């Protein structure tokens, strides 16, 4: 029974433990305790000097420790565990540790191989080797790091520490689970051992004896036992019999030891000569000599196994070459003996047997090793590299070289190229099928939502960059629409990108395949044992042809999937995500393109259904998100076509594709079809959004041009963004920026240009029609809703001041005249600045002239302006005409005296009405009042104020003429009053007089002269001087009331209030 087992057996008070002294321990115990090689060593072993200090404690210190409890084996200190676990020692005091082990810091090589690379060879020095092995108790961390990892960086050491911590946590967790799961079994086993030991030890003792309680580590148990000491009588009663398993009877073996010794002696005397014959001795000696001579042969198998486990390919090749050389030597011995017809000598027979045994082992190991290499070669990607002693090497090249070095029947180069082709084909099919379904699910969910309102669409159209920049910082559509756009872009990127996409993997594959075809890659590959693998260095013509067909097939596969996205209607089958086929070990994992993969864990019984047809323009386009606006559409479609055009150009540059005319034409057709479909749906969405452009009008002033609202700038920004996107869609110029590509992007056909041209003119016309509608009809205001607070309740004066600044930009949109005036001002700006800018932008972008279209747009602008102008002035003209007609036809219009000194009240009413018009225009459009507000020439642009007052003056003159014509004759007093009224109005509004107004005034005097007598005519001529004095006095008296009609002095600039 072991010392440790005895130590944990419970003791009863009937047994007394004598005080431990050195004399009681046997020589074997002393040697075992101090790890000595024998009971009587001649010197202290040097290996023990390297142990921890805890291993060198003297025997007396161990003996002087207090008695341990029965469970002391579960209460070991860390040093006890270190000394007991993994530190078994042999006869030469060396630990039975492993010969080698993996690097504890996670490096791919083993510890001894790392040290070998550093220049330290410790295979035969087990003492020094143990200090570098983590499983050894003499492991030295400082020595290990200084020798094995002295050149590692801090990052690699930190990564190694994480790997070591993770390994310790895994082992600790498994040990903890084992102990927790089997703790009760441990306790029951311990109790059973105690019971059996007690029964065997006390064999023959009376059963009725009462056993003393077990020792307890608790202080109360110790104190309670101190007062109880067994009496001599009680000791005598429990004395065990002579057959009890106690130390005095050598644990029950004393009685049979003597007969056994006698029987052994007799057996030796009888069978010794027969079993130990001299012949047997000679045979054994001969076998030992033969094995000693063939030691290298017998060690090849173990060395090969070790090299395979460590993936030391150089060592594997060395051992395998050595084994094949020895096997050929044994074969030649047999052939020579057979040719000479002689018997093999004993030495030759032993040699052949040793070689055969060795070759069977080596051949089996190499066969398994080749199978593993074939498996890894089939999974090796094109661009993966591995680190070797000579530097980084491509993984597939390393594996191909290993197979060629070992010698194989199949060509590993062709096998790997064919496996990569199959891998890419499967990956492209699975990726495109999954992404197609994901895009359709998002499209169906989006189509099932409510159609956004015109205000919602207009809110995103406002986000178009007004400076014409290509970079868009704002989200141009709703979150769900942008999500679908991003998913489609991600799909095209992962499929068609040359950097990380499937097209990139295809290009890498063909680059490597082409290098193998022309033989440049084979220069670095070995030729194998005696040149047996040289035949695999060159691909056969059939293999080359099949590789070229495979490359063309992959290109067509990618093209077909992209073409299906742009040219085919949305797919109806989306069952792929509800019942996916689990991938096999060689099947590539297909990841989707959606940002939230959890959204596609679908219930097969509740799949999104196809939305009912509502006649929407996007229903037949799988790549256009439902309800997407044209702004986000042209932004993303221009990116899509750049991706498609670039990928098509790169694929067309491949030699098998360029030599195949049909595939090259198909790639050109792909770009053309994608462009045509994109332009068509974009123009349709553009037309829809142009009808919503009227909602861009929010009746707030432009921050830079106060006489305009924000609508012209927003409309021009929207149109410019659409034109820029359409230009990129039609020409795809960015796709040809890379060198080394083949041109597959053709010039846009004339029908596409005409479609864009027509849509541009149509969008401008629809936007202008919306301006008229906004001006003539008030839009619903938030003030009409009792649940909307039109002005925030603020107590702070600072907030009120800020609100007043914001209010300065807004106008009274409920006033029809204000709306019309601002719209007229916007129209003038569109006519003179914005629309010509758009036309120029279109002509530059698409290299066409819009002569007829520009004239049409200008005519439409003039018609709309005339319509709104008449709409604004007609009510005022009606009021003025009524005032003038009523005043002149009034009975008291004729003065009582022949020399009137006042104009009639209707004149003041008429002029005050014009003052109100002047005030309304100047406050609504402040920048129109300036020193230069005069009509220099018919072709120069005039202000809106001048245009309105000039037109009203003409209408006032016409009303005066018609009213005077209604009277049959004019006496002298009536003639004087008519002249005074007409001249007062003409002189007050002289700034706005035109040739037409002057002609009508001259016609008034002709009509007056025609309806009066010669006497009255003569007196009028005589009193003209006095009439001028009256006019001057009246104008001076009304100078303040009608100052707005006076022409500003030269150099004086009027500042609007």
Automatic annotation (TrEMBL):
Residues 49-58 have a biased composition (Acidic residues). Residues 102-1045 form the Exocyst complex component EXOC2/Sec5 N-terminal domain. Keywords: Exocytosis, Protein transport, Transport. Residues 49-108, 211-241 are annotated as: Disordered. Residues 223-238 have a biased composition (Low complexity). Signal peptide: none annotated. GO terms for cellular component: exocyst. The keyword Transport applies. One of its GO terms (biological process) is exocytosis. It holds the Pfam family Sec5. The keyword Transport applies. Residues 89-99 have a biased composition (Basic and acidic residues). InterPro entries: EXOC2/Sec5, EXOC2/Sec5_N_dom. Belongs to the SEC5 family. Component of the exocyst complex involved in the docking of exocytic vesicles with fusion sites on the plasma membrane. Component of the exocyst complex. This is Exocyst complex component SEC5. It comes from Penicillium angulare.
